[in-house]
Each structure stands twice: as C-alpha cells, then as structure tokens.
Design goal:
single chain; mainly alpha; 3 helices
C-alpha cells in the first residue's frame, strides 16, 4: 500500500502586509479625488470630440449633420457635471 504525502503550500512572507494592488495611487484616493479625475477625463473626451468634428468639417471638408452630433456632445457635458450638483 502506498502512503500519500501531504504537501503544504509555501508560506508567503508578505501575508498581512498591504499588497501592491491595494497600495496603488487609485486605491488610496478619496471618492472626491476619483470623481475629479473622472470629470477631467470626460472633459478631455468632449474636447477631443469637438476637435475631431472641426477637423472633419474644415480640413477634410466633409458635410456633417451637426444637430445629432452636437446634441450627443451636449448630453455628455450635462452628464459629466450632473454628479457635482446632484
């Protein structure tokens, strides 16, 4: 009869310490700081969308249907700043 040997997993010396994932910059930020970062990223996206519309219209001279495009961008702006005032 063969006897089974129990193998224990190696111990980790970092157990109980803060892991690299938990000590990242985003993990230690407060909710307000994360919201400010999110709004900054979304504002950058809106500016980039407006710049692309201008580039397509003036440089590439492609006819655009402005009303739906500007409506979508305006809605993005509204939803970007809505959490600040709600």
């Amino acid at each position: 009869m063969k006897v089974r040997q129990i193998v224990t997993p190696p111990t980790c010396p970092d157990i109980g310490k803060i892991s690299i994932m938990n000590s990242s910059f985003l993990a230690i930020q407060t909710g307000h700081a994360q919201l400010k970062r999110l709004i900054a990223l979304r504002t950058t996206a809106v500016i980039a969308q407006c710049a692309m519309l201008a580039l397509v219209h003036f440089v590439l001279e492609i006819t655009l249907s402005w009303l739906p495009m500007l409506t979508c961008i305006a809605l993005l702006v509204v939803f970007n700043y809505l959490p600040n005032y709600a």
